[in-house]
Design a protein that fits this description.
This protein is of the alpha+beta class. The chain is 14% helix and 29% strand. It has a domain of 78 residues: Immunoglobulin-like (Sandwich), CATH 2.60.40. A hairpin with a 2-residue loop joins strand 3 and strand 4. It is rod-shaped and about 95 Å long. It starts with 13 loop residues before the first helix and ends in a 15-residue tail after the last strand.
């Protein structure tokens, strides 16, 4: 089966071309490029009423393998899997498992309550919760005319 995409727009920008390469190909091909070539796991960003959730798909890691750091407005999520010592008496016939280290950075704006960012790792998903600051509503006041 051949997939053909028709796009009649003239004067595509470079960004549009890059987005087409990575986002418009079949999902499995685009995912393979992101993970294999660039070495970072996919991330879902979900907005809720009181927070944003970053869901990082990183199966095979332990929670001690992760490092989260907030430096100014940059939130960096990184992980490194330590290679365990191998049993010298066992011989691998085929080895396809590999755990790559990765590092992703996100810009955190002033709407986020940076002091209360939390993270939890469960079932291969690192969930980072970025709570929103409560909006300070401007109180209205009446000004007397003299």
């Amino acid at each position: 089966m051949t997939l053909v995409k028709v796009n009649n727009q003239l004067g595509k920008s470079f960004d549009g071309f890059v987005n087409e390469i990575f986002n418009d190909f079949p999902a499995t091909f685009g995912k393979a490029i992101r993970e294999d070539v660039f070495g970072f796991p996919p991330v879902n960003i979900v907005e809720k009423t009181g927070a944003y959730d970053l869901e990082v798909a990183a199966p095979g890691f332990n929670k001690t393998d992760f490092n989260l750091k907030l430096d100014g407005k940059i939130l960096t999520i990184s992980a490194e899997k330590k290679e365990e010592t191998k049993d010298e008496t066992a011989k691998s016939v085929r080895k396809e498992f590999s755990y790559k280290s990765f590092k992703r950075s996100f810009t955190v704006d002033e709407k986020i309550d940076a002091a209360n960012i939390s993270a939890k790792y469960d079932n291969g998903i690192l969930l980072v919760t970025l709570p929103k600051k409560e909006e300070v509503k401007q109180s209205s006041q009446e000004i007397n005319i003299q």
